[in-house]
What we know:
By secondary structure, this protein is an alpha/beta fold. The chain contains 12 helices and 22 strands.
Amino acid sequence: MINRQNSKGLRGEITVPGDKSISHRAVMFGSLSDGLTEVTNFLQGADCLSTIDCFRRMGIEIENRPDKILIHGRGLHGLKAPSSALDVGNSGTTARLISGILAAQPFQTTLTGDASIQKRPMRRIMEPLSMMGADITSLNGNDCAPLCIRGNALNGIHYHSKIASAQVKSAVLLAGLYAGGETQVTEPVISRNHSEIMLRYFGADIRTEGTTVRIQPEPELTGRHIQVPGDISSAAYFIAAGLCVPGSELLIKNVGINPTRDGILKAALAMGGDITVLNEKHDGEPTADLLVRSSRLHGITIEGAIIPTLIDELPVINIMAAAAEGTTIIKDAAELKVKESNRIDVMVKNLTAMGGCITGTDDGMIIEGGKPLHGAVIDSCLDHRIAMSFSVAALLAEGETTIKGRDCVNISYPSFYEDLKALEH
Ligand code: S3P
């Protein structure tokens, strides 16, 4: 049960857990490198633990210590056939990226996951990987997991993706590590580029020009040290709460501000949010501390190239929009329908239940802000980002809010409720 923040607002300092996208990639690329990879500030969320489990089951020794994880990489050709199906749990990133690797292995794998994963579209990776020569079948014939992936010799392609998806791009690039020649991916607009940054750091020959990335096959990847920045997608809940709960002032420390991920900052500033970026560091993945003060927000239109840079933050941006004056229009975000839940439908249902004024559209939503919110029973649909977004909404609402399936925050932010509570005064 979460109650409105009636008192002096949210105050204090917070350090959010490590970035989910970067943590997944550290395990995957470390496993494919020669020698030891040490990862600090690794996200101990269920999704990233699924990635560790999958690579352990392919013969990689991974030590999960309290202060770091150690990956004893076996090189590009060092994976072993798992003895049974690989289970990615709830993790779309694991499912899609690992498929690019499995497509080139000298063994056959079955890849499965939870009920949500078994509904998420896999054609988007099956199509380009098949063009490269991969043999992938959807066992239920619905283009979703479980997938049977029979490793094959692959050829390089130039793939023109219709969607801006880092998961699709990364799957093709990872298959490209094993291809017979250069592989290129062109996206309609740039999606998060953590794979490109980290693969280069491990020793891959990978270059970006505009929205095209090219990778050369058979690099010698060498184990490295990865310091994972705080996850801006997790920081987003505190940015929203800090801006919308009156009387708040929060310092969010060590947040990743990669420009392919920082749309939440741009959107919040455009809405009139008082955010100061402090202590910027540009060594590898850029990071900064964010000072957030409560602000009077106004509605904006969010569309086009910014969408992939804030796609996971749109649920909590909906909450900011509900608290803002005027109308917020979100367009070009049809991808919301195929995330851990259909985030257009789920946002409309839950925000309406709290008294918000929101209309779903084909590719986003329209929110009339400024309507008083009241407590309600929220169905998270076991989607971690929905549970966290409505925890923020609950702080703005009159009365009590109950979030069904609240523990799903374990996917990306196991200590979320404790961390939020610690800031209340
Ligand atoms: C991710 C990419 C995004 C994002 C997901 C993580 C990644 O998905 O929504 O949470 O780590 O590559 P798409 O690339 O499918 O848009």
